[in-house]
Amino acid sequence: MDAVDTTMEKLRAQCLSRGASGIQGLARFFRRLDQDGSRSLGAEELQRGLAELGLELDMAEVRGVCRRWDRDGSGTLDLEEFLRALRVRSGEWTEEEVLRRFLDNFDSSEKDGQVTLAEFQDYYSGVSASVDTDEEFVAMMTRAWRL
């Protein structure tokens, strides 16, 4: 595991330990880091966010992280790239653990493994509230689910 992978694992652990699990929590964290309101994170914004989580990296290391996660070559990280970077990599969890974690995102506090229509609607109403327009929400879901 190289330094970028190590940083990603630390960032994922820090986000989860602070309750930033699921799309909603990570999107909130992302927006908080986006100081200039550009809807993307530059290296400086990412560095401040990582430092806030106790991950002190020099600018060269942060730029390495940005390059690894920046899929469109823009030099910044948009929300989709940020979420993709923090998702669980294949092979870390069993299929059952992945399913349970997935369902837990939608499930109420009871976490019974059953997702009701009301729980699903509640989850997605929260997600859509964190996105400015319907078009942006549709684009995010289309990209995330590769539809």
UniProtKB/TrEMBL annotation:
Keyword Calcium: yes
The entry's keywords: Calcium, Metal-binding, Repeat
Annotated EF-hand domain residues: 21-56, 57-92
GO molecular function: calcium ion binding
Database matches in InterPro entries: Ca-bind, EF-hand-dom_pair, EF_Hand_1_Ca_BS, EF_hand_dom
UniProt KW Transferase keyword: no
PANTHER family hit by this protein: CALCYPHOSIN
Protein name from the UniProt record: Calcyphosine
Encoding gene, per UniProt annotation: CAPS
